[in-house]
Amino acid sequence: MSLELQLLLLVWGTLVGLDLVSVPQAMIARPIVAGPIAGAMLGDIGTGLQLGVLFELFQYDILPMGATRSPEYGPATVAAVSAAHAAAGTLGLGLGALVGLITGMVGGLSLHTLRQLNTRAVRRAAVALEAGDPRALERLHAASILRDGVRAAVVTALGLALAPDSAGPISRGNASTARGRVAQRGGGGLGARGGGGGNAAPGGTWTQSALVRGRCGGRHDRGPAAMSRPSTGTRPRLVRSLLRLFTVPGILELRADAGRRHRRR
Amino acid sequence: MQGVGIGVAEEPLLRDLRGDGTDNGVAYRAAVARGSHFFNAHPYLCGLAVGAAARAEHDGVPPDQIERLRTALCGPLGSLGDRLVWAGYGCRSPRGWRSSRWRSGLACRLF
């Protein structure tokens, strides 16, 4: 995903987060609105609509009356759509939902913190407000909106950071490349040798795939664990692990490892 | 809650109270201070409260009555707006929509 696209999603998520409480309260914070528009930005309206409906159903349980504390599903939906778009297939929706739920919880906590900060700001300006100073009133109002904007931006950025980068091998656009790389890395993938009988890479036992060996603690400095290590860009290790768990190429890789271990026995 | 926002929205309507400046804008400042007191209602219907309070300030209604007016408007505007907008958003029967049977059925069809 290009930097421009991520910035666009960040701006949209910030606007969605602002809409929930501060301005313009035009209902764009509803996931059914935020999701498809985020999907349209990514060129994947279908995924946006599916996740928008999913989080809208979550939000139906919440009535934002008074000082209700609830997860914030607007920026969460934007982050979820980004994650689901980057990962492949139906399991990508699962990954998107996971990212969205985590972001929604963080958003709810940040709203609570924001209310506390606003209360403190009003108490600090109480003397000026009681004196009827209109400039103090406007300053307080603008500062509260600015604070909410920063909060929304931070929550959206966190959600987008949790979402995997689609420029990597396990992405929708590079699915075939990813399968080839999985076979190359593991030495036993279904694609490279046709039957899952690839050679083990140097530096490990036959019962371990090169990928697994590469992840063993403290062995990274002994040299390359795989025949060719693909460039993973700047994707964090946690996100790579999640991708391996939740995406189709990752499952193929795990199945190939399990099959090879079974044949060894 | 919405006191600061109501005060900011009401302030332009109160500028006529400044007069010619002989009293140093005491009435105007007192009205602005009252406008920024606690208020909580549905945001879509807050405009009604802003208009009513500004009209009362212009009519010279005693301050305690204006405070009572604001307090009295909180409940009805809040409950009406919450019922009309939040609870009724996108569906005619919130209770039906919120039942798990509806949600699971819709989710199954979509996914």
What does the model show?
The complex is a heterodimer of chains A (265) and B (111). Chain A is an all-alpha fold and 265 residues long. Chain A is built from eleven helices and no strands. The longest helix of chain A has 36 residues, at 89-124. Chain A starts with a helix and ends with a helix. By secondary structure, chain B is mainly alpha-helical. At the A-B interface, helix 3, helix 5 and helix 7 of A face helix 1, helix 2, helix 4, helix 5 and helix 6 of B.
In which range does the helix fraction of chain A lie? 55-70%
Give me the number of helical elements of chain A.
11
| Strands of chain A, count | 0
Total domains of chain A, how many? 2
- Radius of gyration of chain A from CA coordinates: 23 Å
Chain pair sharing the greatest interface: A-B, 29 and 31 residues
Shape of chain A: elongated
How much β-strand is present in the residues of chain A? under 5%
- Beta-strand content bin of chain B: under 5%
Uncertain residue ranges of chain B? 90-96, 99-111
Please give the largest β-sheet of chain A: none
Structure keywords:
heterodimer; A: 265 residues; mainly alpha; 2 domains; 0% strand; B: 111 residues; 6 helices; 64% helix; disordered C terminus
Topology:
The complex is a heterodimer of chains A (265) and B (111).
Chain A: H1 3-21, H2 31-42, H3 45-59, H4 73-86, H5 89-124, H6 126-130, H7 134-162, H8 175-186, H9 210-214, H10 237-246, H11 248-264
Chain B: H1 3-10, H2 26-35, H3 46-58, H4 63-86, H5 94-98, H6 100-110
Helix pairs in contact in B: 1-2, 1-3, 3-4
Task: Give the structure's gist in a few sentences.
Chain A has 265 residues and is mainly α.
